[in-house]
Amino acid sequence: MSTRSVVGIERGTLPFVALGVAVVAVSTSAILVRYSAAPSLVKAFYRVLFTTLLLLPFALVRHRDAFARLTRRDWLAAGAGGVALALHFASWFASLELTSVAASVTIVQCQVLFVAAGAAVFLDEFVTRRTVAGMLLALVGIVVLSVGDASGGVVAGSAPLVGDALAVAGAAFSAGYVLVGRVLRQRIPLIPYVVVVYSACTVVLLALVLADGAPLTDYPPREWLLFLGMAVGPGVFGHTVLNWALGHLESSVVSASLLGEPVGSALLALVLLGEVPTPATVVGGMVILAGITVVARARGRRERQ
Question: What is the pLDDT of residues 200-234, one digit of tens each?
C-alpha cells in the first residue's frame, strides 16, 4: 500500500476515531459529577482548572509562538467561547443534582438543534437532507429515552422539571461553544485554542463560585481525585479531542455524534448508580445510534461526490 493511500485513510478516518474517543470520555462526566459531593459550581471550576493546568505546559513549550499570532478578535472570540462553556457547565452540573442522569444528559444534547441553526445562519454550512433526517431521528431517540426516564423506571431526582430546564439552558450554551470552536479551529492550533478557552472558562466559573459563597478548599482526598478524573477523562480526552475534531469536521456532524453520550452515560448509570432504564430508554438509545449513523454516512457520501 502506498504512503499516499495510507495518509488518505488516516485523514478520512482519524476524525471519526477521535469522535469515538471523545464520546466515551464525556460519557463518564455525569457519573463523576454524581459521585462528587461538592457544590456543582465547585466541581465545574476544578474540572476546567485542572484541565487547563494539564495542557498549559505543553502549550507553552510547543506552541508559544501561536499565542503571539492571535489577533485581538481571536482573543475575544475564544474568550466568548470560554464564557459559553462556563455557563454550560454551571447549568448542566446543577441539572445533574436535580434530575436523573438519563434525563439531564439526553436533554442537554438538544444542543444539536441550536448548532444546526447557528451553523446555517452564521457559518453558511450546507446541511443535506440526509443529515437533517439523521439529526431528527437522533432527536426522536432523545425524546423516547427521556420519556422512559419520566415513566418512573429510574430515580427522577428532587426537582426534575427544574433540572430539565437547566439542561436545556446548558444545551444552548454548549451550542455557542461548539460554533465558536468551529470558526477558530480553522486557523488556530488545538492546544493554544483550548488553553485560551479553558482559561476564560475557569475565570468565569471562579467568579460564580465566589459569588455563590461555596468553599474552594477543605475537601477530602476522594473529592480531589474526582476533580482530577473529570479533568483527565471528560476534559482532556473529551472536550479537547472534540475541539480537535471541530477543525476537521462540520459542527453539525460533531454535535450529532455527541448524541451517543446519553447512551454511554445511561449504561454507566445502570452499572454504577443503579439507575435502571425502562424499555423506552433502551429503544431511545438505539434510535439515537441510528441517527448518528445516518449523519455520518450522509457526510461521507457528500465528500465522495
Answer: 999 999 999 999 999 999 899 999 999 999 999 99
- Cell readout for 125 is 454550512
Structurally, the chain folds into a number of domains equal to 1
Can you give the residue range of the structural domain that contains 46?
A: 3-304
**Alpha-carbon torsion 60, 64, 68, 73, what sign?**
negative
Q: Which residue has the cell 454548549?
A: 174
What torsion do the CA atoms of 237, 243, 249, 251 make, to the nearest 10 degrees? 120
Q: What is each CA distance from 178 to 6, 183, 213, 244, 265, in whole angstroms?
A: 30, 9, 30, 11, 21
Angle at 288 between CA 283 and CA 291, to 5 degrees: 130
pTM of the predicted model, to two decimals?
Answer: 0.80
How far, in Å, are 94, 164, 183, 286 from residue 28 at the CA level?
16, 19, 27, 19
How far is CA 54 from its chain centroid?
A: 19
